[in-house]
C-alpha cells in the first residue's frame, strides 16, 4: 500500500494510472497470480483518475456553456441594436424627405422602403435570436416602420417631387420606445446576468472557472466602456455641430441640419447599446442624455431658416452639458478605474495563470506532449490580443480531450502493446528533448 | 497514410504552403487561417505525427525577449509535396458531383 500512496502522491498520477491499468491487464491475461497490492494500487489510482476526469469534464462543459451564453447574449444585443438602428435610419430618411423638393424623391423613397424592409428583417432576427418576449414588440416596430414608409410614399407628389403632407412619426416613435424599454429590461433579467454566475459559483469550485468568469466580466466591462465612450463622443460631436451651425451663414445649412439629425440618431443608438450592456446602472443616465441630445437637435433644426441659411437664435446647451456630466460620472463609477481588472488583462498575468484545468489536462497527456501543449498554450495566450485571449483559452480547453487522445494514440503506437516499465523509461529518455523544457 | 481532408486541415495546409520554407508559429497560423488555436493545434499534431509537418521551439531567452518561446511549424519536403497534391485534389470537383451535374444537363 505504501507503493500505492507514493504513486498517488506524485503529480503524474493519471498517466501512471493508465500505464498501471495496461500492466494489470497484462497480469490478468498472462499470469495466474494477481497480487493484492497491485489491485489495491490500481483501484487507488483509478479512483484518483475518475475524480480528476469529473472535474475536467465539468470544466469543458462549463467552457462550452459560457461560450454559448456569451454568443447568445451578443447575438441578441446585436439584433436589438440592428433593429433599432434600421428603424432610426428610416425615421431620419423620411424626415429628410419631408423637407426635400426635387427630382431625387424617387430614390429617397426607395431608400425609405429599403430601411423598412431592413427593419422587418431585423425584427425576424430578433424574434429568432432574442428571448420570446421581444418578438411581439419587434414585430410591431417593423409594422410601424412599414406604415411610415407607405405613408411617405402615399403622401408624395411625384410630379412636384415633394411630400404634400408630413407623415405621422408618433406611432414609430412610440413603438421604438416600447421596444427599447423591453429590450433593456430583458437584458437586465437576472436569469442571464446574475443568477447564472451564482449557480455556477455553487456548482463549480475550480480556480479556472472563476478565471473564466473574470475573463467574461472583463470583456463585458470593455464593451461597456467602449459604448460609453461612443455615447459621450457622439454627444460631444452633436454639441459641436450645433454650436458651429449657430455661427454659420450660407447655403450649406440644410446639410448641417441633416448632419445634426444623424448625430442625434447615433446618440440614440449608442444610448441603447449602453443600456443593453449595463441595464441596471447606466440605462437611465444614457437615456436622459439621449433625450437631451434629441431636444437639442430639434431645437437647432427649429431655429434654422433654411432659405436664408442662418439660425435665428442659438439653442440652449445647458441641458446636454448637464446630462453629459451626469452620464460621465455614472460611467466612471461603473467602468472607470484601472484596478485589478486591468492587471488581469496583462499578458504575463493571464499567461501565468491559465488555470488548473489546463495543467491537469497537460498531465493527462504523455509527459512530453503534455509539457509541449501547455507551453504552447502559454506562448499563444501571452501573445494573443487580450480580447481574444479568453476565447482562445476556451478553445484550447475544448480541444484538450482530442489532443489527449491523439497524443496517447501516437505514444502507444510508438511503444507497442504492453511494453514493460523499463522499456517505457528507456523510450522516454530517447524521446526528442524539447529545447523549451 | 494521408489524413482525412477537412476544410480546416486544408486551411492549415494552404497557410503552410504559401511559402513552404517559412516557419509559422501558433498565433500566426491562427491569424492566417482564421481558425481558433484549439482547432489548429490538433491538426498540426496529426500532421506532425504523419510526417507532413515538423516543428521546433524557438531558441530564445524568455527573460531577455520578455515573452515565452514560440513553437514554429513548417512543412517537410515530403509533406509539402503531399500537401500540394491534397490541396489540388480538394479543388477538383468529385466524380460523383460531375456525374450529378451531367445527369441534370449541366455538363454536356
Report on the structure:
The complex is a heterodimer of chains A (437) and B (108). With 437 residues, chain A is mainly alpha-helical. Chain A is built from 18 helices and four strands. Chain A has helices at 2-9, 13-30, 36-98, 105-129, 135-154, 170-187, 190-193, 195-203, 207-247, 253-277, 283-302, 318-335, 340-345, 347-352, 356-364, 367-383, 386-415, 421-430; strands at residues 156-157, 162-163, 304-305, 310-311. A two-stranded antiparallel sheet of chain A has the order 1-2. Chain A is elongated. Chain A starts with a helix and ends in a 7-residue tail after the last helix. With 108 residues, chain B is mainly α. In chain B, helix 1 (7-17) crosses helix 5. The longest helix of chain B has 15 residues, at 77-91. The model of chain B has no long low-confidence stretch (mean pLDDT 83). The chains are: A mainly alpha (437), B mainly alpha (108). Chains A and B meet through helix 16 and helix 17 of A and helix 2 and helix 3 of B.
What attributes does this structure have?
heterodimer; A: 437 residues; mainly alpha; two-stranded antiparallel sheet; disordered N terminus; disordered C terminus; B: 108 residues; 3-stranded antiparallel β-sheet; 6 helices
Describe what is shown at a glance.
The complex is a heterodimer of chains A (437) and B (108). In chain A, 79% of the residues lie in helices and 2% in strands.
Amino acid at each position: 500500500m505504501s507503493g500505492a500512496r507514493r504513486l498517488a502522491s506524485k503529480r503524474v498520477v493519471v498517466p501512471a494510472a493508465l500505464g498501471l491499468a495496461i500492466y494489470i491487464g497484462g497480469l490478468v491475461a498472462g499470469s495466474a497470480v494477481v497480487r493484492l497490492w497491485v489491485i489495491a494500487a490500481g483501484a487507488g489510482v483509478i479512483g484518483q483518475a475518475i475524480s480528476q476526469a469529473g472535474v475536467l469534464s465539468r470544466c469543458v462543459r462549463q467552457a462550452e456553456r459560457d461560450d454559448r451564453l456569451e454568443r447568445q447574449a451578443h447575438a441578441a444585443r446585436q439584433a436589438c441594436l440592428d433593429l433599432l438602428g434600421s428603424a432610426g435610419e428610416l425615421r431620419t430618411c423620411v424626415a429628410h424627405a419631408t423637407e426635400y423638393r426635387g427630382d431625387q424623391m424617387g430614390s429617397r423613397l426607395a431608400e425609405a422602403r429599403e430601411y423598412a424592409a431592413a427593419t422587418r428583417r431585423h425584427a425576424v432576427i430578433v424574434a429568432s435570436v432574442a428571448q420570446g418576449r421581444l418578438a411581439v414588440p419587434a414585430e410591431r416596430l417593423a409594422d410601424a416602420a412599414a406604415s411610415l414608409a407607405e405613408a411617405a410614399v402615399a403622401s408624395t407628389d411625384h410630379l412636384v417631387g415633394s411630400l404634400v403632407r408630413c407623415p405621422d412619426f408618433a406611432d414609430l416613435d412610440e413603438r421604438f420606445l416600447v421596444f427599447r424599454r423591453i429590450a433593456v429590461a430583458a437584458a437586465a433579467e437576472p436569469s442571464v446576468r446574475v443568477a447564472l454566475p451564482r449557480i455556477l459559483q455553487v456548482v463549480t469550485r475550480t480556480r479556472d472557472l472563476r478565471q473564466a468568469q473574470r475573463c467574461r466580466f472583463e470583456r463585458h466591462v470593455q464593451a461597456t466602456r467602449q459604448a460609453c465612450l461612443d455615447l459621450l463622443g457622439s454627444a460631444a460631436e452633436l454639441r459641436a455641430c450645433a454650436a458651429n451651425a449657430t455661427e454659420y451663414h450660407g447655403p450649406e445649412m440644410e446639410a448641417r441640419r441633416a448632419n445634426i439629425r444623424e448625430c442625434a440618431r447615433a446618440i440614440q443608438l449608442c444610448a441603447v447599446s449602453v443600456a443593453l450592456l449595463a441595464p441596471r446602472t447606466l440605462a437611465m443616465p444614457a437615456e436622459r442624455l439621449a433625450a437631451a441630445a434629441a431636444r437639442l437637435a430639434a431645437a437647432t433644426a427649429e431655429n434654422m431658416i433654411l432659405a436664408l441659411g442662418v439660425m435665428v437664435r442659438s439653442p440652449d446647451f445647458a441641458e446636454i452639458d448637464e446630462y453629459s456630466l451626469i452620464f460621465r460620472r455614472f460611467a466612471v463609477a461603473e467602468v472607470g478605474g484601472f484596478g485589478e481588472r486591468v492587471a488581469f488583462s496583462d499578458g504575463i498575468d493571464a499567461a501565468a495563470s491559465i488555470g488548473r484545468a489546463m495543467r491537469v489536462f497537460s498531465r493527462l497527456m504523455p509527459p512530453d506532449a503534455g509539457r509541449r501543449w501547455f507551453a504552447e498554450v502559454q506562448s499563444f495566450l501571452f501573445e494573443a490580443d487580450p480580447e481574444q485571449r479568453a476565447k482562445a483559452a476556451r478553445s484550447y480547453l475544448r480541444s484538450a480531450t482530442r489532443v489527449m487522445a491523439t497524443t496517447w494514440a501516437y505514444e502507444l503506437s510508438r511503444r507497442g502493446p504492453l511494453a514493460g516499465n523499463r522499456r517505457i523509461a528507456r523510450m522516454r529518455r530517447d524521446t526528442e528533448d524539447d529545447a523549451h523544457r | 497514410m494521408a489524413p482525412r481532408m477537412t476544410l480546416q486541415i486544408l486551411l492549415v495546409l494552404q497557410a503552410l504552403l504559401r511559402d513552404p520554407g517559412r516557419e509559422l508559429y501558433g498565433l500566426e497560423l491562427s491569424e492566417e487561417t482564421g481558425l481558433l488555436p484549439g482547432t489548429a493545434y490538433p491538426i498540426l499534431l496529426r500532421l506532425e505525427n504523419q510526417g507532413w509537418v515538423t516543428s521546433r521551439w524557438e531558441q530564445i531567452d524568455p527573460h531577455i525577449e520578455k515573452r515565452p518561446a514560440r513553437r514554429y511549424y513548417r512543412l517537410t519536403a515530403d509533406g509539402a509535396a503531399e500537401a500540394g497534391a491534397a490541396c489540388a485534389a480538394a479543388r477538383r470537383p468529385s466524380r460523383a458531383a460531375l456525374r450529378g451535374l451531367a445527369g441534370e444537363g449541366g455538363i454536356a
